[in-house]
Every structure is written in C-alpha cells, then in structure tokens.
Amino acid sequence: MKWITQDNIETFVYDCFRWMIMIYALLYIILLICSIVEVPLTKYSPTDNLYNENTREVLSFSPISQEHPMGTDFYGYDIFSQIYYGIKTNFIFSLIGALVFLIVGTLLGVRLGYYSDKNKEFFSFINGRNVTIKRYFLPKITNIHMWERIASDIINSFPLILLLLLATIFLDTWIPSTNKKLIILMALFGLFSSPRLASMIMGKIQTLRSEEFILSAKALGLSNRQIIWKHIIWYECRYVLLFQTTYIMGQASILEITLTYLNLGAQFPWVSWGSILVNMGSTGFHIYILFPIIFITLTIYMFMRFAEEIKVYGEKRNL
Amino acid sequence: MNNDIALSVENLRVVFNIRQGIQKTIVDDVDFILRKGEILGIVGESGSGKTQTVYSILGIHVQNPGLVKGSVNLLLPDADGQEKLKNLYETIIQNTVKIEHDNNKYRYKKNFKYWRRENKKLFNAHTIRGKKIFIMFQDPKSFLNPFWTVRKHFYKILSPQNNSPKIMDKLIKETLNKFKLPADKVADLYPHELSGGMCQRVMIALGYAVKPDIIIADEITTGLDLINQVAVVKHLETIKLEKRQSIILISHDIGFISKLADKILVMYDGQGVEYGNSETILNPQTAKKHPYTKELLDIYYQTHKDGYILGEPPRRNDIVEGCRFHKRCKRFNEGMNCSKVAPSDFHRLDIMEHQIRCKLFQNN
Residue A122 above 50 pLDDT? Predict the structure, then answer.
C-alpha cells in the first residue's frame, strides 16, 4: 500500500480529483444519452407540481427517498428530474455556441493566416525612412486584413455578458420566443469568442506557410484548400481546435445557466439547471440546493479538465 | 537530339515589394530555351536569381511579387491534341504597371492585389505543377512532408494516374529499387528516419515515377557528400537516357553542371549574361566569353590570379545603369559607355546558339 506522505500528497489529491472527474464523466455521458433518447429514468416529469393527494398540499422540500432521490424544491418539482432533463438543455445549447466558435474561428484564422500579407505590414510599420502620409496611411486604410484584425481585437476586448444583454434587448423586438433567442445568444457567444481561436490558428499557419514542404506541396500541384486543410489544419492544429472547443463548451455551459437564471434563457418546455437555481434561490437557503450546484460544478470542471488533458497531450506530441 | 522547344522564357522580370516604397528586382530580363531531351544548367553565384527564375516558371513565389513581366511558354496540348507553345502568363499585367523615374530610382507602381486571382485563373497550376514540371528542392528533408511516409508521398503524387493500390505498390517497389533504395524498408519510413542522401534519392525517384516533361533540380547536390553526389549524377544520367526528359539543373558548382549539361545559362545579378553550349562555354580556350564567365572558369580551373572576383555585386535597391558587371569587369572600357548604356538582351535564341550580354561581343 502506498503511504500518503508530505511528498506525494499533491499527486494523491490530484489523482483523486482525476478519478472523480472520470467517474462523473461516465455518469454524465450515460445521463446525457438517456436524456436525449428520453429514457424514463424518473417517474415524474420535471414540470409536474407534486402535491399530497390527501391534504392537497404542495410537496415542498420532501425528504430524500426512493421516489425522490434528491428531494423536491419549494414548488414541489422533483429535483432529480430537473437535473436529468436539464442535462440535455445545457449540452445542446453549449454545443451550438461551441460549433459556431469552432467554425467561425477556424475560417477567420485561415483567412488571416494564409491569405494576408502580414510581413508587409510589419516592415512598413518599422520602416521609418522616406515614409510619407500618402505612402503609409493610404495602404493601411485600404488593407482589409488590417481591419479584420482590428475588428477581432475590439470584439475580443469587450465584456461578453454585457454584449449579450444588449443583444437580448435588440432581439426582443423581433424574436418573442425566449428559446430561439437563447439559440441566437449562444451563437453570438461563439462568434464573439472566435477571435481567440482565430489568432491561434493564424499564428500556426503563418509559421508553417513559408516552410519548404508547403512550398513543395504547391509545386506538386496541390490546391490551397488541400494545403490548408490537410497539411496545416489537420496535422498541426487539430489538438488546438479540440482543446479550445472543449474549453468553450465549459464556458458556454455556464453562460447558458447564467442566462436562464437571469430569465433570458431556456423556458418551458425546456428545463434548465438555471431554472432550478431560480426556484431554489428565491425561497432562502435549503440544503437541497447543493445537488444542482454539485452537478453544475462537476460539469464545468469536467470540460475544463478535458481541455487541459487534450492540451497537455497535444504539447507532448508537439502539435 | 530532338529540336522541339519544350520551354522558352523571354524577358522574364520579377520585382518584389519588400517594404513600403522599396522594390527589389530579383530577375531582370532573363531569356533561355529548353529543348526536349536537353539538360540546361543555370550557373551563378548566390543571390543571382537562379532559384527565383525557376519559381517564376512555376508561379510558386515565396512572397507575392510586385510584378511579373515577360512570357514563359510551355509546350502544352491544344484542344486539337496538338502540342503548342502556350504562354503561362498570358494577360499579366502589363497595363497595370507604371514606371516613374525619380532620383535615379525606378519605382514600379503595381496592382498586385489581383495577382493571386490571375495566377490561379490563368496558370492552370494543377495541370502543370507536379505533372508537366516537377521540381526538386535543395533540402530534401524539408521538401518531403514530415507527416507522410515515403509510400504516402508516392500515393499522393501518383494517385491521379494509377488508382489501383497493387499497381502503385509495384511501381513504388520498382522505382525505389532502381535508385538503390530497399523498398521493403524505406517505403514505410518517415523523412526524419532517412539520411540526407536517401531523401535526395527518394526525391529523384518521385521525379522519375511522375514522368514529367521537365524536371527542375534546384541545387540538389548541395549539402551531400561526394559519394552521394556521384550517385545523384548517375541517377540523373539514367533519367536523361531512359526517359528523354528535359532537365534544368541549378547549381553554383560548375563541376557538377559540366558533367551533365548540354546548354549553360550563366546568371549574374538577376540577368542572364551568357547562354550557349556547354562545350563552348566551359572550354577555357574559347575567346568569346563574358568577362564574368571567364572569371568563374578561371577560379574553377584554378588559373585565376587573385583566387576570387574583386569587388561586390550591386545592391538590389538601386538599379544600376549600364552593364551590371562593369564595376568588377577587368575589361571595362569607358569608350564603350558600359557604365551608362546597358548591353542588349539575348534575342532569337532558337537560331543563335551562343549569346553574350556584353558590348565587347555585340555589334553596336
């Protein structure tokens, strides 16, 4: 038996967390698949107000039992049912944001990295000799790639929640349905986060673009599309894409919960973890609130942990 | 030898825009002809524009050029099936270029934002690169894709021609064995697992298997030991004798060129200064020779007084008026006005075999 000493306590704790996340990930996947396929794991629907048939009283905070593994909240909703059906909501809306992030970020990174002439601008910036306003500013103003980079830097620096709240006000006039609004908000989240991925892809492409094997691929007649997607993105950038997308899934997940908590997210018939927090939080503290909090925390931590593992694995392979 | 012209380059000029307001003339009015089954050797010192000339033929410039002017005519089949010389740079780009003369500096205003689009549209790059013209780069390990095995290189390059894996595997085995590479061991290795000489031979084997009309070998013996250099020379001789393909050899090593080349083009500072048969040019007894060629050969045959050419080549930012070599030329003559009026270019290369860009050998 390996004794826990002062030297190995960190690795022991690390390993414990790792095992905990792996077990939770397995549980998450099982619950997610069951939720999507609509396996009736619970007897009760998440939107059923449960009440005592004799006294006609709402079953608020009923004790943990076989029927209610995690009890009920103040309004009589079964907490486990809400968590079980909320997984699907949370995953689907996070996936929308992550897919938009992946697609827009990759396309933007490819455009800025492969099709722009960054070296030219760099030299024009540092070269101070014989530079007049006409020669310096006019080419810069007309250079679309420079504006694309400025736009992505501006978007990257803006606080995201504020942007999304402003977008909600803007969308209120056209889209009354909250669920459709949430889809658009998650897509906007993916869009505004994509410059981060774009800059990483851009850097990778620019370092490789002048490599000789890329030049030889051109000389052998391969098209730009084949060179970018097969040579550069697939071989060099796939771990970056995976790592960033998994990380963004975690962020999108917490964003969805936040928006639902602020009453801007998923509404009936969709059930969200944010709505559990709203119901539980509005009536004062009760110990049962720990159940959704544990699930939310473990889910976010699971995504972040997976992203870290992918990043470490990719760095070990130098990709 | 077949007299048909496989490739002809006329007045090729390439100007790069290095930074704001500064251009660099890399290739300045280069002309040469390559016939079928012929080996052309391009010789010159480092920075003379040999590689960029060849890159311009393929359109694979490392940096987007500011200007490409001239004509590169390649023998391509017509709609009727007959082979004709076609200009690869048909509509580039004469009308969009303005030349201003300001303080003895030539400035090219260019419109190269359409360069990439025009290049792709007109060039038919995919039918020419890797099929009609195959290029071998200097560093074979950089040329080969580090993520692909040798077998995958053959599959990727030859797949349009042979679809069956059995035929491909047989071809790979025969080709590698021909170039003394054990196919069973080498075919499934990555480039980093091969030595430099083996990578070079893999590259030559790829060129052999593709069966292009023209092979361009860009300093393929640089960085190799003597044994591998001899092997490379033998393999190129094999290709020449068996396949009757045209080859362009680029090197700064006259000894390597002299073993294989039928014709030689000597380049200096982006210009072709002498073009002719290798026997004529390499013969030290020939009286008609460009002063730069003479100095190169004197150094090669170890008969040069100083052991090196005095002076330095001109900087590219300033275009030199007159002959580019006049400051280093031992036969410089003020009466000939070499410092102000440049000698005329090559002309009618198909008729006049030996041409020299020097006023000493040109009439008027």
Answer: no
Q: Look at A12-21, A43-52, A266-275, B89-98 and tell me which has the smallest mean pLDDT.
A: B89-98
What 3-state DSSP class applies to B306?
Answer: coil
Indicate yes or no: CB of A221 within 8 angstroms of CB of B128. yes
Q: Mind listing the pLDDT tens digit for each residue in A167-197? A: 888 888 777 777 888 889 999 899 888 888 8
Determine the pLDDT at residue A97: 93
Confidence (pLDDT) at B14: 80
Mean pLDDT highest for which of A52-66, B46-60, B87-101, B303-317?
Answer: B46-60
Can you list the domains of chain A with their CATH numbers?
6-318 (1.10.3720.10)
Contact status, residue B344 vs residue B276, Cβ threshold 8 Å = no
Q: What is the mean pLDDT of chain A?
A: 80
A221 to B147: CB separation less than 8 angstroms, yes or no = no
Q: 């007084």: which residue's tokens?
A: B305
- Chain A residues in contact with B62 by the CB 8 A cut-off are 210, 215
Task: Give one word for B128, left, alpha or beta, with left for phi > 0 and alpha for psi -120 to 50.
Answer: alpha
- The alpha-carbon gap from B129 to the nearest alpha carbon of chain A, in Å, equals 5
Q: Which residues of A touch B116 (CB under 8 A)?
A: 115
Handedness of CA B269, B275, B279, B284 (dihedral sign): negative
* Interface test mutation site (partner B, options A117, A213, A237, max chain B beta carbons within 10 A): A213
Q: Are A300 and A250 in contact (CB under 8 A)?
A: yes
Q: Which domains does chain B have, with CATH numbers?
A: 2-127+251-361 (3.40.50.300)
| Residue from B113, B145, B190 whose CB has the most chain A CBs within 10 Å, to mutate | B145
- Residues in A touching B161 (Cβ below 8 Å): none
DSSP B313: P
What pTM does this model have? 0.72
| B317 in reach of chain A (CB within 8 A) | no
